[in-house]
Amino acid sequence: MLEGRQGEALGLCLNSLVQYGSAFGARRLVPIASAHLTGSFKISFFSKYYELLSRLVREGVRVRVPTTLNPRPGYDFAPQNRMVFRPQKWHEEQLEALGVIPNYSCVCYLYQNVPRFGEILGWAESSAVIWANSVAGARTNRNSIMMDVCQAVTGLTPEFGYLLDEHRRGQLLVRLDVQRMDAAALGLLVGRLAVDRVPVLEQWPFTQAELKNMGAAMASSGAVTMYHVIGVTPEARDAAMAFGGRPPPETVTITEADLDGVRDSQDMQAAASVVVFGCPQMTAEEAVEIGRHFVGKRVRKPVLFHMVVLRNYPITPTRAPTEFLMQATQHPSGAHPEGLSDPTASEWSRGRHDEAGQVGKQPKDDASRRGHRTVRQRSRDGVSSSRINICGAQESAETRIPRRYGVLTVTIFE
Which among 90, 117, 188, 381 has the fewest CB atoms less than 10 Å away? Predict the structure, then answer.
């Protein structure tokens, strides 16, 4: 492969991984169980990335492990998006030609690319990487765009960093003196304190959603790639296990007042030009919880909601969560946007799905595989529309409301 006997592009990918590993002192390449890609947008900045994808497709290369993909851009959010992302369709076709699962979600670990304890992964996307390392106990470095594709098509990754035991041990003990937990705010503070280290939090009964949001905040504010919660995460049965039998090198305490400082920050609220819920994407439970706070109110700034749910979730995914959110983002005339509020309001045209729920199985017909068939419906006041893209493994629905009120996007998985 390295000599190009299986194709020049594949040889280039393997050579890139060798150099990547050499830069970080890796002694060997090891097989991976799955990959996750960040390069889901077609924009001009990554021209060499798109060139590599084209070469791989021309040479008939396909990914060697189940490979999922980050969210794609919101085409209808603004006219600028439709201009900037005009080549997006071509890009998506290239990725699917490589065999990438078109899930378009940053929470792949919840549904279509669920890692197992101890597995070696080749993942990008900081919020997914920190979940895989911390909550699942799998092993992956925080890989970049380009390197993620190289790992997917070769099925290999350099062995260094968070793949090794010595880099997964705790380096900072975080004591909690709080009464009202705010996991996302806590993650923001821990990230600022840890900065590229492995923090170990005292035991707290975090929910799955809280672990997700806390980890994403740590990754954003401090480039944290892994954390432990004593008695909760799999590699921290107790403090001794989390710190590898050694005393904590440093200890800090986060208090209720610290969390209040984040929650009550007027500067942060004033500086925000748009408010986003669901980065990483919300679950149905989170959407319902957040939605209750919008009932009977109107938003003052542009608001984006992004969520992902299983089709067999007990709350009808096209109904309960969206009804709460729509009440706050409806048109001033008072007309309630249709489309997603009633599952019978539009014709649900479905592609071929993997009934067994197996990762990596692709629909055979081009129309459902590419995911470009749409169903549109206008609301009573004529200002909002819904669009359902059929993408084989999932249906992605987007309800568009005038920009000053909000946008709700929903990805529904089988």
Answer: 117
